[in-house]
Amino acid sequence: MSADFHRIRRLPPYVFEEVNRLKARLRGEGVDIIDFGMGNPDMPTPKHIVDKLIETARDPKSGRYSTSKGILGLRRAMAGYYQRRFGVTLDPATEVIATLGSKEGFANLAQAITAPGDVIICPNPAYPIHAYGFIMAGGVIRHVPALSPEAYLSGVSRAVSHSAPPASVLIVSYPSNPTAQWVDLDFYKDVVALAKKHNMLVLSDVAYSEIYFDNNPPPSILQVEGAMDIAVEVNSLSKTYAMAGWRVGMVVGNARMCAALARVKSYVDYGAFTPIQVAAAAALNGPQDCVDDIRATYRARRDVLVAAMGRAGWPIPSPPASMFAWAPVPEAFGQVGSMLFSKLLMEEAGVAVSPGVAFGEHGEGYVRIGLVENEHRIRQAARNVKKFLDQSGQILSRARAEAPTP
């Protein structure tokens, strides 16, 4: 009998676990780690949202089971957000599902719409749940390089022409985690046309739709005429309102896919704690100046990161959106790979980043840097990086000497 269960065998070792083990060991030894590794907002949730949670939690009825697809008030608030932000009209009863964060929504949607052997077109690099949600559901992933939106769309066109059986689902995710890239509405028009031509459903992940800097607000695929026929969008309050630990997301759009997700969720959960859902509705319906403040904080950190690391000798492209920078591994370390570079950077400079290979093979040569430390810590990290790069020769020599013999 195999030591691993079938679905577990389909999942590779989680790359982040290796980095996290090293981080924990170093912190246990007293090392101050400046941690850009995880996209974990460090800002407090706005007060009026927390106050609504507390107020609702005092109701003796609040501890009862909720409803798996979300309370109606929250689904109405989500539909209202889409109307205000994108001009998209949604029926809260049939086209909006509240989820336990976008990750759960994505994974359960994959369970709902995937048959064993279905071919899924997935960007690479990408957030891991995009591929592994479908792998756990029995799907087959066709990875398409996505180092630019144009390259991804071109690669999708080639992939669907050579897929047997034909691809059934196309995944898009902009602003992108990890690459921070942004697209305009014309991109989504091309996606919808391509998907309809090849009879594919579309899953669009827009968890970072409110974290943008230099462009107009990112659009929604649901703004495209005919998109509701084939597409759903996965969204989240995690980054928009600094509510990551609250686990509130949504899946909106095509009623058939929403119904399938609701059916699966009815078997596996009762929805989030009701006071959390009421507070989430207050976030969406209430004053939005807090969103502007959160966006401004990320913008300021981005500007400090790019400038300070540039002076340190590590040129980092300025991200137009998301809470991440997608940075090429410095030239001196270009031959060692993103994983070893990330480990050396943590051990020698006390700076933690995410290796690009954790997001897929086409992420090799890059690292993801989260804008989750304050400006003072970012400048401190840059000083550490400068010393690290100045000593790159000695560091690499030690690493080679300590490497196990093949």
How would you summarize this macromolecular structure in one to three sentences?
About 45% of the residues lie in helices and about 15% in strands. It has about 400 residues and is of the alpha/beta class. Helix 5 (about 100-115) crosses helix 9 and helix 7 packs parallel to helix 8.
Task: Output the keywords.
single chain; 406 residues; alpha/beta; Aspartate Aminotransferase, domain 1; Aspartate Aminotransferase, domain 2; 2 domains; seven-stranded mixed beta sheet; three-stranded antiparallel beta sheet; 14 helices; 12 strands; globular
The biggest beta sheet reads: 7 strands, mixed
Q: Give the strand tally.
A: 12
Strands of the biggest beta sheet: in what spatial order?
A: 2-8-7-6-5-3-4
Shape: globular
Estimate percent helicity: 40-55%
Q: What is the CATH topology assignment of the largest domain?
A: Aspartate Aminotransferase, domain 2
Point out poorly predicted stretches: none
